[in-house]
Structure prediction request, 164 residues.
Amino acid sequence: MTTHPVTRHPGAAWLYLGSGLSSALGNAISNVVWPWLVLHRTGDPAAAGLVATCILLPSIIVATMGGDVIDRYGRKRISVISDIISAASVVWLIAVDTTVGATLPWFIAIGIFGAVGDVPGMAARTALVGDISERSGKSLDWLAGANQSIMGVCYLVGPALAGV
Prediction:
């Protein structure tokens, strides 16, 4: 069995970290904005709580299946698909709101659609760190630490940006 040398692409680490930054920041912002939009539209705090709960529960269920999905379809593919699903949910909400008006059932349905890919996507992106380390030449420790630092900062800064 012959092995082929890995072609180093130092920029791969920065692309990986940038994609993680945009994904985590988008998720952190949407976690605040989604219920906030419902509160703004309905004026009902219970409706905002209902939407947040309806979005969270399927995420927990999907999280239990996430490892199997990642193993079956691949880390890179699931990472990309999850970000496409998240982005599509935002576009879908805008489209629904401009055409028929977003109501509570729409917020719940589109929120669930957007949330089901988040946990497997984060897990898949974290699992990619070894591949990216090998490809970029960055140490695994450095890359994993940078990724986790970015995630932590995003979940601190994201809600503040959502408020702005």
